Amino acid sequence: MPRFDLSLPELREYRPQVTEPADFDDFWRRTLAEARRSPTEPRLTRQESPLTQVEVFDLVFPGFGGQPVHAWYLLPAGTTGRLPAMVEYNGYGGGRGLPHERLAWVTAGYAYLFMDTRGQGSVWGSGGDTPDPNGTGPSVPGFMTRGIESPHDHYYRRVYTDAVRAIDAIRTLDRVDPARVAVCGGSQGGGIALAAAGLTDGLAGVLPEVPFLCHFERAVGMTDEDPYQEIVRYLSVHRNRTEQTFRTLSYLDGVNFAARATAPALFSVGLLDPVCPPSTVFAAFNRYGGDAEIEVYPFNQHEGGGGHHWVRQAAWLEHVLS
Amino acid sequence: MPRFDLSLPELREYRPQVTEPADFDDFWRRTLAEARRSPTEPRLTRQESPLTQVEVFDLVFPGFGGQPVHAWYLLPAGTTGRLPAMVEYNGYGGGRGLPHERLAWVTAGYAYLFMDTRGQGSVWGSGGDTPDPNGTGPSVPGFMTRGIESPHDHYYRRVYTDAVRAIDAIRTLDRVDPARVAVCGGSQGGGIALAAAGLTDGLAGVLPEVPFLCHFERAVGMTDEDPYQEIVRYLSVHRNRTEQTFRTLSYLDGVNFAARATAPALFSVGLLDPVCPPSTVFAAFNRYGGDAEIEVYPFNQHEGGGGHHWVRQAAWLEHVLS
Amino acid sequence: MPRFDLSLPELREYRPQVTEPADFDDFWRRTLAEARRSPTEPRLTRQESPLTQVEVFDLVFPGFGGQPVHAWYLLPAGTTGRLPAMVEYNGYGGGRGLPHERLAWVTAGYAYLFMDTRGQGSVWGSGGDTPDPNGTGPSVPGFMTRGIESPHDHYYRRVYTDAVRAIDAIRTLDRVDPARVAVCGGSQGGGIALAAAGLTDGLAGVLPEVPFLCHFERAVGMTDEDPYQEIVRYLSVHRNRTEQTFRTLSYLDGVNFAARATAPALFSVGLLDPVCPPSTVFAAFNRYGGDAEIEVYPFNQHEGGGGHHWVRQAAWLEHVLS
Amino acid sequence: MPRFDLSLPELREYRPQVTEPADFDDFWRRTLAEARRSPTEPRLTRQESPLTQVEVFDLVFPGFGGQPVHAWYLLPAGTTGRLPAMVEYNGYGGGRGLPHERLAWVTAGYAYLFMDTRGQGSVWGSGGDTPDPNGTGPSVPGFMTRGIESPHDHYYRRVYTDAVRAIDAIRTLDRVDPARVAVCGGSQGGGIALAAAGLTDGLAGVLPEVPFLCHFERAVGMTDEDPYQEIVRYLSVHRNRTEQTFRTLSYLDGVNFAARATAPALFSVGLLDPVCPPSTVFAAFNRYGGDAEIEVYPFNQHEGGGGHHWVRQAAWLEHVLS
Amino acid sequence: MPRFDLSLPELREYRPQVTEPADFDDFWRRTLAEARRSPTEPRLTRQESPLTQVEVFDLVFPGFGGQPVHAWYLLPAGTTGRLPAMVEYNGYGGGRGLPHERLAWVTAGYAYLFMDTRGQGSVWGSGGDTPDPNGTGPSVPGFMTRGIESPHDHYYRRVYTDAVRAIDAIRTLDRVDPARVAVCGGSQGGGIALAAAGLTDGLAGVLPEVPFLCHFERAVGMTDEDPYQEIVRYLSVHRNRTEQTFRTLSYLDGVNFAARATAPALFSVGLLDPVCPPSTVFAAFNRYGGDAEIEVYPFNQHEGGGGHHWVRQAAWLEHVLS
Amino acid sequence: MPRFDLSLPELREYRPQVTEPADFDDFWRRTLAEARRSPTEPRLTRQESPLTQVEVFDLVFPGFGGQPVHAWYLLPAGTTGRLPAMVEYNGYGGGRGLPHERLAWVTAGYAYLFMDTRGQGSVWGSGGDTPDPNGTGPSVPGFMTRGIESPHDHYYRRVYTDAVRAIDAIRTLDRVDPARVAVCGGSQGGGIALAAAGLTDGLAGVLPEVPFLCHFERAVGMTDEDPYQEIVRYLSVHRNRTEQTFRTLSYLDGVNFAARATAPALFSVGLLDPVCPPSTVFAAFNRYGGDAEIEVYPFNQHEGGGGHHWVRQAAWLEHVLS
């Protein structure tokens, strides 16, 4: 993909107007209140594993509607006491996979929770284990338009709620220091992390990589890559639902969550990224409510900073937590 | 797509062994019995339309689980009495769209019902109006793997039930001669028509065009085109669910429905069709339980016989009904 | 295709300078005069058809050079007297196909003529029946550069003349009200409709959808999609014929015909259309000589408004004719 | 393109049955007789050129129907007397271009004629100068289906006649030894060379490279590459013209011409060639009526032997002529 | 990619004849003897890292020609004494990247060495650090044809030697049990592992996943995917070097190394793998000299078993080592 | 490729700032001085050839580091005395091929030298004969990033030196007039010609067609076509080497060489060229130090003016030399 978006100096100043519904906060307050009626404490089951240096648990917590959501919960073997914790959300289409596939944070000494994304986990990787028991109106294959007729029914209302409840859950565990919980994720995981950051108090850090789910009004139609393109396809058929659709999406826009977040944050962006165009990432970054830095990868597409960025994240988080 | 499947003489003799579960009939008997607990009679609402030669109705009937399913119901204006009827099922991803988009059968003098496919109708065309209120486990974007863990939960259990109930519904109408109801459809619609033919008594004719949903054990992995490829993607992630997956699909295989059908049938097939490979179509045709003919289009892909085939169908059906 | 052209506010103001040859009107006056030396009255042959609600005729009229051009002519069965009429021109590569394939206008009560495009009808659909007996100099496969050396020899001189003569022909029929003839078409058909509108008096309505053949000087090289790209390919070989080529095209440019049209018009445009870029459509719309409206489909490509737009057209035309 | 056709041992034995119409010879005898009613002698016009070592002429000869066909005619400067001559036919879509573009044969001491292919010359290269004044019925963009309804009207009837008449013409020139005229060409040019070889007496050599236009019954549908695919597209629309189409093509099949040829021949073939599959080349080679060799390029696609093969050709021809 | 190779039953019996040069063993004996003239002991440099549970070292060992080759060497923190060790080779185009990117084996309690592939490490991932100081004759971009004129100069002669020397090096370390060293790798890494297995005594296990570099005579031309296709491209230009090229490759063929291996092995294969076709993998597996198992992934392409296969590997290796 | 770069009026004024290292001249002075320590006189070997009108020689001259570089050297047969000479450099991936493949300049009366590009000659055409004996650090397949860590080690330092030494060599020959030597080439060959023009005194003419290797800071990331994209790929992996990489490239940038050139020049450019975007060509043209013209091909991509441009070049050069 050649350069196609604003220049870096323009991106640094890019502060577009993004629709925010008047009842945004109310909508989410009620959504979370309803979810929190279910008990918070997760169910932990120790897993057999060849990983001698790590303790592995299947963790099940009550997400949206109290529905069970799976996660892997990993602890560095041979440690004791409360640890700082990292909660990670996954990219689009992937599931939590297998416990040995994401070892960097636990090997760096963190309690680590990797959340399944409901209904996903069948497109790449090693699979997911969490159903999405809610149906949908006519929708484009994928998750972007499930329940698109209303914010109340939209798929990401459920996922964002799961994300908040994952933090609630990990904070109840006796090996986790609830004041030192950070969230991270790439692409969809980055968008979910932003939502969690806007909906949760007291996070120690927020680390969205090349975040998806930001500034829909620009993103939809600006790129022809999935998943944003799923919405274009929907609107190309449902030609009279443009207004309704963007109204629903305004309740889910990472820009609006970023404006409400207060924890320190480290973003990343690829300037050639056709999946999550840089201007949509900067739209969220430039509105972020807390202290925030962004690492710019000028010749990367959606892979962003890759392993290089994790090294940057680990150093940044160590600094933030110290 | 160049020629890639068996030669025509081989296709004419192709009678593969296709898995049929022992409780196939029982499974479907119970499924339909449960659905038929809802009242059969549809709700008809006359639609405003610029079509002066056709009467247009929104028809809503109780499908799987009694859930409401939309259809268009068209009658030739200026006619009276009971008419022969055609029930049509749609191709993958499309919805019932708008009433003026499918006028051939009604203009030829048939009462015509065009069924929405639940949850579909957002990929091409003019949209659909019927939700699928049932959720799913981890699945590949699309409909092939929704509920794939079990035949009981699979999406097409619901759709096939809708299809049978659409026939039930149209037979209750006073403008329809219940003894002269035929079913048709292309691709997914052809597969659904086969299922309806295997599950319904007394149909006057069955007209599957380039039918999909036939002989999964060969189709999955033989072509890399969607929708069969959705199942390949699922199995490429859920590497240990091959047996379970094909067990579920065996309850949904058009070959097994074809073997139970008794009404006269007219199939079509495109010998260069990469979406529904000709051998999978012949697998169903060669097992068809009633009298059956097949029109072979040697240089067509999935578009099959197009308008030429409709002319053939209209003549064939007129002959069958006479 | 992501957004690539001007923004909607810019499109609404887009009024580019388009080359118009000094003898444009003279060229076409002489062309039509020559064609009209042949007798106008068409030859009608009733067709056998399964369509009981429609009367079907093969209509042959003398087009350019008096050469025979085929059309389908449909009447709503059971009607009498003079009807309003719709003349439709086809998209690129298609033929008139089979009579049952385009039933909406006749079912809405119009006398309907669907014109074959000479030499076309072999790329998609069910075929065409009209040859183009004129040869060509070296040309790119396709129709855009047949006779490109001179407006006198260009293929579309013949097609546009056919289009005007189709209107002449239908106006002679006793079931048609010559004062209530409208023209429509999508893509190439929309471009031909514009030409017909600029060359014919007294049309009741003009309905170009996503029209092709407009503002060549911008379109050629702005998109790499066929058919405009055929001209790019030609010029990439005949490197010294740029001026001559655009001179020829200026006699065929829909913008110049739009400026001469006076009948009320309803356009459509897809803002993501890579085949007929929106600015080329607005270039014609903004120059249109009569009352004109345009329906904008913001998330559609070349499929434009599809069935939704036909509903819009039917209501608009009913209003215009009333 | 991976290997997709028969193995080399199978190719060497591949002798399929190819349809040959009973009046094949009569058809061509009459065609040529009619063409030869025009005077044979070409019109030569010396061209200004920077090429000091070569004399350049525009040569115009009467082809099919006596219609003028252009060619470049080159002589090695500083030579005198009668020279052996090479007549070359071009690949699909190209024109004769410019005189300096094909210098190898003249630089090797041959009188060289490079024939324009009527109507072609606008897809690649530097252009063509010869129109095809004959029109066509509905056809697929390209040249394969122009006049496909009948061998009498087919485009290649005209081209093959041009090819024979080019040989007639060059044999009249005083710098050419009429007993030492060879023909060559790649792809379409190779197919034309085969036709010329089957229709002309006394050629000194025939050098078809990766010839096209051979064994249509296998080629059409076996590859999805143009130009054979043009015929598939045609038949996918004109679903009821399969028999008629292949009847027309049987009059034009290089296999039937090969069987009639008597001059010594050197073929070439690329075993990975998806445009002219190797089995279609061997079908002609194995039926060739004279002495014939074939150079096999196992890892080449349609580019065949390239410059390496010209070296082989030059040595072979020198040997044949000596 | 649809199924394109032999069926699974055929694959299990597939034992093709593969060229083996008479001096194969001599060639490699001399190559390794020459390399072993350099001192074996690696240079270890402890790396700063956020990974508290792992000790990280940059390890540099003398590879082919004594040239320095980089690797990461990881030890589970908090362990003492000699550990079993895993040596991993990388896939095509990747470098050793960063230490935190491959943590599974060390977290499972193994000393772990991940070798850089000389000159690679710039196409995907986080980079490599090892140059290839040797030049090349004319070659196709990539590594397959560097030095293809002779086995002596070929790139993989150097890489395979590096691979053997990596094992030599790790066996000298005081935290490694030299009798319990295994090798693994996917794709190119699997091919290198096979070479190492054929050239090294006393390995505890060999774990090639979807191995590349096997049965060149079938693979080259059977798939059009890189890297095998690099060789096709080379031969399509150097049309007269087929014999020489395959002679060089015969010294590098994984089938010939497999026949010489004696350590227990666990292979994997994807039956839809277009990069390393299953028959080429089975060609090596069926010739393997030691005990060998193969895990078949029927619906996977080149990703093979992914994380699922690592779980299988870890269990298998634990069993083998116990 | 649609239009994507600046408009022609903008291009004519485009004079960007391009990084030029302070020691640019010193770097090249030392590089050439070192190369010129080897004897200049080439080794000539007459080749057997079917080309009777041309004398063919294999010419080997000492290039970078005195390493042997091959070229074809052609003379018009039957001439005597000193001739003007043309030195041509090749496009990316090609080799010198075979002597009969480039005959235009020699046929126009020039002594002609066609230089092999070291290490290239295996991607298209008929092959190359010159190795590149220098190794490389981790690099992307291709030549752009070989030795990218430093200008001293970069591949094009060697190639540009070869290019200068080719001119040195041909000037020693007794059939060449050393005051009438011109250089030409397309794409990579055009970039090399610019380098030669900036590094050589007394050239009679410089003819770069659609030159590559110009204005890297804009080109890298502006197009996603190879070869510029090779550098994007490299930087997408080596995320921390952007500065170092562009520093190396600044020693190789055609813009910097153009500024130093003094011989008259004729450029060409294709306005739709996605490989060498027009603005990068104009960046060099607008900085050219001598008299310069540019031929603009508005509808061409990277093929530029093709044979038409050669005619233009021949006339221009004749004029310049007269």
TrEMBL record, chains A, B, C, D, E, F:
Pfam families per the UniProt record, alphabetical: AXE1
Single Gene Ontology BP annotation: polysaccharide metabolic process
Highest taxon of the lineage: Bacteria
Residues of the Acetyl xylan esterase domain: 1-319
Alphabetical list of SUPFAM superfamilies matching this protein: alpha/beta-Hydrolases (SSF53474)
GO molecular function terms attached to this record: carboxylic ester hydrolase activity
Residues annotated as binding substrate: 92
Catalytic residues in the record: 187 (nucleophile), 273 (charge relay system), 302 (charge relay system)
Protein name per UniProt: Acetylxylan esterase
Organism of derivation: Cryobacterium cryoconiti
